[in-house]
Design a protein that fits this description.
The chain has one domain: TIM Barrel, CATH 3.20.20.80. Helices cover 35% and strands 16% of the residues. It is built from 13 helices and eleven strands. An eight-stranded parallel β-barrel has the order 4-5-6-7-8-9-10-11, surrounded by five helices. A three-stranded antiparallel beta sheet has the order 1-2-3, with no helix packed on it. A hairpin with a 2-residue loop joins strand 1 and strand 2. The two termini are 27 Å apart. The relative contact order is 0.14.
Length: 344
Amino acid sequence: MVVALVLALVLALIASCAGCRDDDYPGLHVVDNQLINRRGEPVRLLGVNRSGAEYACVDGHGFFAGPTGRRAVAAMTSWGINAVRVPLNEHCWLGINDAPTGYSRARYRKAVRGYVARLHRAGLYVVLDLHWSAPGDLPAKQRPMADLDHAPAFWSSVARAFKDDHALVFDLYNEPHGIGWQCWRDGCKLSEGWRTAGMQSLVDAVRESRAQQPIVATGLGWGTDLSSWLEYRPDDPADQLAAGVHFYDFAGCASVDCWGRTVDSVARDVPVVVTEIGERECSGAFFDRFMSWADSADVSYLAWSWNPSGCAAPALIESWDGRPTPSGERLRERLLALKPMKLR
């Protein structure tokens, strides 16, 4: 009886730490143009975005603007997903620029770490994304590019906090726009007077913190443009870069031809993760076309978003218990049929 109890406890500890560090195996990592799990098997990240942590903290009404406990996570896993992207706010993480005391600094970090742990225990990979930021003492919001004042410090801190979690991906900046490729990689001074942090400085911040997880660098044009990604990709000493791209039915690249032109050449060299797809029309037709293409192209995708905020947002659910919108229903049906490989 005692032996059985001890064995059960050991197995439970192993399961609860499925995403933690294993010095004998690297966990989720990049090999050539694929993401590979700790068992050496190719993995596609197929799931949802859980918006909230980028804005709720500065609005002063919580960490996530909605439930994130075990029941909320179970509602997501019932769709067959294997990954969740969590957008973050650099001011709340760092506790700067008048971020509300109750929802920033150590409390915000603890809330994020706790949510990531719950997602891992449910068998889910996690993508952490810098979504809202701002230079100097300006308020955080979606900006043309990450700011040099705070974004490197944010990634240095996040990377240190999660460097032993090998079921994780770092998404350096949500949707670069209004800048050129040189600025995207190396940084520049914008007409507003502040300096951006280039992708290279953000990669450096992560690696100098000794974190080795895969890094997503999202292209220009609000994430829809990868045309010069290979030419300007940052140098990563760990060789763990992936390209990020966003596709919506209302954006410029909304056809099979455009998806192929945007992704194919890059996907031959590095993994491509479509970290946002969304449909405002809400019929599900766009999702059907996109997922058929993405599945044939072996591309990862994470849908926007697991929030009951209406189709215009666009949203996947009508209520926190997981009741889907029409486009959300298409995603759910597809993932339940695909049975994507979960964290193990």
